[in-house]
Protein 1
Amino acid sequence: DADVTQTPRNRITKTGKRIMLECSQTKGHDRMYWYRQDPGLGLRLIYYSFDVKDINKGEISDGYSVSRQAQAKFSLSLESAIPNQTALYFCATSEQTGGNEKLFFGSGTQLSVL
Amino acid sequence: DAKTTQPPSMDCAEGRAANLPCNHSTISGNEYVYWYRQIHSQGPQYIIHGLKNNETNEMASLIITEDRKSSTLILPHATLRDTAVYYCIVRVYGGATNKLIFGTGTLLAVQP
């Protein structure tokens, strides 16, 4: 979805390097999420934020940190990358109305840690 | 949030209806059933959701059993472009666990 933009699309880095993945959205949504996807494991939630001052850990937050710089921006950092953080990373936004929370995903960032 | 169980893979002939089952036997009364799909490493896409009534939109129909312990996503006339991984998710509306947790889904292969 072009309204949720992730940069970079692909990144190759070395073990021990600090990496930042960026996500920006033009949907005006308060809620933003970071997921990672590994083959055979589906999508797993890393961190999520319900507004600018709110940060919450997901299922697999160890080794990651996030920053919600503004309503439209949510960055994911790997302070010291390791090979098992090689994965496809997705950012998503949502707006909850009534009983519906519909997620809108970016195109993903393929990260390879050598 | 309740867990869901889906078959890992299914096949369907092009033009036929695709019926994707999901088991959520521990679902609570205030949990919604959501379906998303992911086409080959793209970001997942919302399809439909429901609480207890059957739902239909331009993409699919959702049939939820009366006891709410299982549901079926129906793609009425599957096309090759419907080949994707389909995720069934249940989640509570509101509360501290206000997030969607994805499982491994069902890989639907639509055959020509």
Protein 2
Amino acid sequence: NFMLTQPHSVSESPGKTVTISCTRSSGSIASNYVQWYQQRPGSAPTTVIYEDNQRPSGVPDRFSGSIDSSSNSASLTISGLKTEDEADYYCQSYDSSSWVFGGGTKLTVL
Amino acid sequence: EVQLVESGGGLVQPGGSLRLSCAASGFTFSSYWMSWVRQAPGKGLEWVANIKQDGSEKYYVDSVKGRFTISRDNAKNSLYLQMNSLRAEDTAVYYCARVSSWPDYWGQGTLVTVSS
């Protein structure tokens, strides 16, 4: 079993770029796809990135995903930050037949 | 439009049982794996269980094995979660999700509170 570790919180100003990391504790980050979910207060999660770097239709291209084998981590980058991007973000991957979620990162846009 | 609507949550005493339901519409339910994911108050997401299209494969997080049972009725486009021997730590919002390799659509969730 492995864990996915995210920073508890990040903050940045509108118009800037922020990157949220998701580090896998054991095994290769590249061995299983990573997804990213956005969850606004009081709402269900929605997918912003799937299969490491794919954007669902309707998600603006300000959102991008990547993986870095050297740091064994995945990253979600949001450029041109808007106040509406303020939310919790979770990474998720697979461990055999189960799913693993990161602990979540609270993004504050101030 | 894909819709997932959970129901069946509520207040239950420790050791009690509850059955959650998820009504699906807007897609061919029988073609997809389905999942339950929960979120304790103020906490992160935790995967609970997955079920294959025909119900022949089921997987659970260790903490609910032997207590929870995931099932489905493809004729009724419905997903279920039977929860027995409930504990305080099972208190959470329970989401059902459609699985396209990853959970691509989520319901709005139903709150389960385990307390005396």
